[in-house]
Fold DUF2780 domain-containing protein.
Amino acid sequence: MKIPRGVVLASLLAFAATPVFAAFSLNDAANAVSSMQGGQGGNAAAPAGGLLSALGSQLHVTPEQAVGGTGAMLGLAKNKLSGNDYSQLSKSVPGLDQLSGAGALSGLGGLLGQSGNSSAVGSALGNVQNTGDLNKAFGALGMDSGMVGQFAPVILQYLGQQGVGGPLLKSLGGIWGAGS
């Protein structure tokens, strides 16, 4: 019996949101996303897990909000950066690409009590073409648009620590409205 990836992600993230499973962390969520999408298990997800942990601890967001907000921002980056720049970004930070995958985003929609891609959340997160879409995605996750400005510096700092170069960071900052 093959279980859809979205169902697995939704289940794992649901555990992260319950007090009984408080030991389930954002790193565990990143590992689950990576393994569902054929990643290299913990090795590929460790950097992405570090990013999710940084967002959770610095911005006090839920695991769902960290995964969804990061996914929405990376989705916008994927749509706005040249193919070469996005490829460089995903090669620089192993596991990062799994956070922007459609499967992870539709799974998040299911987690939030809606049915995958047909849900408002899945729809908002799965089609981030501009900053208006990004703001809608954050709203669907229960965050106001001001949180985009709080996510951006944390993500940019983290990417810089992972070896992403200055010109690419500047491009990402421009895409996310964080300036340089």
Residues 69 and 138 are 6 Å apart (CA to CA).
